[in-house]
Design goal:
Distance between the termini: 62 Å
Oligomer: single chain
Largest sheet: 5 strands, mixed
Strand content: 5-15%
Length: about 475
C-alpha cells in the first residue's frame, strides 16, 4: 500500500507519496481544487492529511476513490515533528506525515457526514448574522448615549422603529449615518427570521431532533447543533464520553501527591457547549419544580448559579445522548392510552420477563398511587420530597405521592412478599385508566435521573411499565 501525505493549502497543496518501505515515489505541489481528480487516478493508498478547513472535502474525495483516510489532529502533528527546529515548509510537513504513516497507523479524527457539515454551516451562518446585528445595535446605542437619546426597551425586531422615534424627538433629529445602520438592521432582522424558520423546519423534519426537543429548554438550534457535533452516537461508549468530548467535564492539574481539579476543559466544539448552557438556563426558568432543577439549586447554594448551570448543561448532554442512542423521548403529561404501550427503562429490560417465575413483582391495584408509604426516598446524594412530584406537565396533582424504597408493598395476591424484595429483579406495573398520571411521573423521574431512580430498591433493580 502506498502512503500519500498531503499538506493542504487554500490554493496549492504539497503531495508526498511513499512506498511501504518508505521510499519517496512522488513529491510535487498540486492545485488544491483538482485534488479529487488526482486521487481518482492513484492506486489504493493511505491518504494522510492534517485537520483543517479543506481536510474533510479531500477526505470525502479519497473515500470515494477507495482510499484509506487518516485526518490527523492538528494537536498531534506537532509531536510528530511538524514545525520542529523552527522550520516549517509544505514540503517538509508532507514528508514527515508520509514517513510517520509508513511506520504507524496514525489516529484519525471523526470525518463528519455531509449532512452534519451542512447543518453546522447553517447554524454557524445564523449565529454570524446575530453577532453582526448585535454589533450594529451596540453602535446605535453608543451613539444614542453620547447624544442623550433614550431608546426604549423592547424586542429586537422593533429596535429600528424605536431608535428612529427616539431620535426624531430630539432637535437634531436622526443623522443619515445612523439611519443607514438602522436600514441594515432591518434587513438583518428579516434574514435572521428566515434563518430561524429554516432551522425550525429542518429540526421538525428530523425524527432525532424531534425527540431531543422533548427535553425542556432544548429547541431547534440546540438539537441541530448537538446532532451535527455528535453525528454518530455509536462512536461514544457512554454519556460521560459525550460530556468530555463537548468540554463540559472538569479538568485536572495534578502531580505526585498534589491533586487539583480545575474548571471545565472547554475542549470540543464551543458553539455546542454554548447552546447547551443556554438550554440549561431555559430549563431552570420553565421547569422550576423539576427534580433536576432542584438538584441544580443544591449545587448553586454551594458553588454559585453559574457553576450549577454548567453542571446542568453537562447533565443535559448525557440525557440528549441517551435519548438519541436508545430511540426514546422525554415524556411529559398523559400518555396515549394504547393497550400495548411498553416503556423500557434501561438496557435489556424486556428480555425474559414473562418467563421468570420468580423475581418479578407485579402491582395491579386501583389504589396503587395512594397506597404508597408517606415517606421520602433518597437517590444517592439527592433527596426527593413529596412536593417535588408537583408536575406542571400533569393535568392534576397527585395526592401525596411519596415512595419509600425499603418498604415497597406488594398489592397483588400472586406477587412476591414484601420481605423478598431483595430477590426482585424487575417491577411490572399495570396501572388502571386513572393512574396514567402517576405512571408518567415515574417515567419522567427516570428519564431525568437515569438509573438512580431504579437503584433505590437495590443495585441492578429494573422496572418495566405496561400501560393497561
Amino acid at each position: 500500500m502506498l502512503h500519500a501525505a498531503i499538506d493542504l493549502g487554500g490554493q496549492e497543496s504539497w503531495i508526498c507519496v511513499r512506498s511501504e518501505t518508505g521510499e519517496i515515489l512522488e513529491e510535487r505541489p498540486h492545485r488544491t481544487a483538482s485534488l479529487p481528480q488526482y486521487l481518482r487516478r492513484q492506486p489504493p493508498s493511505r491518504v494522510v492529511v492534517e485537520s483543517c478547513s479543506e481536510a474533510f472535502h479531500v477526505a470525502d474525495a479519497a473515500l470515494e476513490s477507495q482510499h484509506q483516510v487518516r485526518v490527523a489532529p492538528a494537536t498531534l502533528v506537532r509531536s510528530l515533528g511538524v514545525g520542529s527546529r523552527r522550520t516549517k515548509t509544505d514540503q517538509r510537513d508532507a514528508r514527515i506525515l508520509s514517513e510517520v504513516s509508513c511506520r504507524i497507523d496514525l489516529p484519525s479524527v471523526h470525518v463528519p457526514t455531509n449532512q452534519a457539515r451542512e447543518r453546522r454551516s447553517r447554524c454557524a451562518v445564523r449565529e454570524q448574522l446575530v453577532t453582526s446585528r448585535t454589533g450594529l445595535v451596540n453602535a446605535v446605542r453608543g451613539w444614542s448615549r453620547q447624544h442623550g437619546v433614550c431608546i426604549p426597551t423592547g424586542t429586537m425586531a422593533r429596535f429600528p422603529d424605536r431608535a428612529r422615534a427616539a431620535a426624531l424627538q430630539t432637535p437634531d433629529g436622526l443623522p443619515e449615518f445612523v439611519g443607514r445602520i438602522l436600514l441594515v438592521i432591518e434587513v438583518m432582522n428579516a434574514q435572521i427570521a428566515a434563518a430561524d424558520d429554516e432551522l425550525q423546519r429542518l429540526a421538525k423534519s428530523d425524527p432525532i431532533c424531534q425527540r431531543l426537543m422533548t427535553v425542556p429548554g432544548v429547541g431547534a438550534m440546540t438539537a441541530l447543533r448537538f446532532v451535527a457535533a455528535i453525528d454518530d452516537p455509536t462512536r461514544f461508549a457512554h454519556a460521560h464520553s459525550v460530556s468530555a468530548y463537548l468540554g463540559l467535564t472538569p479538568g485536572e492539574h495534578s502531580s505526585s501527591k498534589h491533586k487539583q481539579r480545575t474548571g471545565i476543559t472547554k475542549a470540543g466544539p464551543a458553539p455546542v457547549r454554548r447552546v447547551l448552557v443556554l438550554a440549561a438556563w431555559q430549563f431552570q426558568r420553565c421547569r422550576p419544580l423539576d427534580p433536576l432543577v432542584q438538584w441544580t439549586k443544591g449545587i448553586a447554594e454551594r458553588r454559585g448559579k453559574f457553576v450549577a448551570t454548567v453542571a446542568l448543561a453537562r447533565k443535559l448532554s448525557g440525557i440528549l445522548y441517551a435519548i438519541w442512542r436508545d430511540g426514546s423521548r422525554k415524556r411529559h403529561g398523559q400518555g396515549t392510552g394504547s393497550r400495548t404501550d411498553l416503556h423500557d427503562f434501561g438496557p435489556a429490560m424486556n428480555t425474559g420477563l414473562h418467563d421468570q417465575k420468580r423475581g418479578v413483582l407485579r402491582v395491579n391495584d386501583p389504589a396503587f398511587p395512594r397506597s404508597l408509604h408517606h415517606e421520602v426516598f433518597h437517590c444517592g446524594f439527592q433527596k426527593i420530597t413529596p412536593s417535588m412530584f408537583a408536575n406542571d406537565f400533569l393535568t392534576e396533582r397527585l395526592p401525596d405521592p411519596v415512595i419509600h424504597g425499603k418498604r415497597f408493598p406488594a398489592m397483588d395476591g400472586d406477587a412476591l412478599p414484601a420481605h423478598d424484595i431483595d430477590h426482585v429483579s424487575a417491577l411490572v406495573i399495570e396501572p388502571e385508566e386513572n393512574e396514567i398520571a402517576f405512571l408518567d411521573t415515574l417515567l419522567r423521574l427516570h428519564l431525568i435521573f437515569h438509573n438512580i431512580f431504579l437503584t433505590i430498591l437495590k443495585p441492578g433493580f429494573r422496572m418495566v411499565v405496561v400501560r393497561g
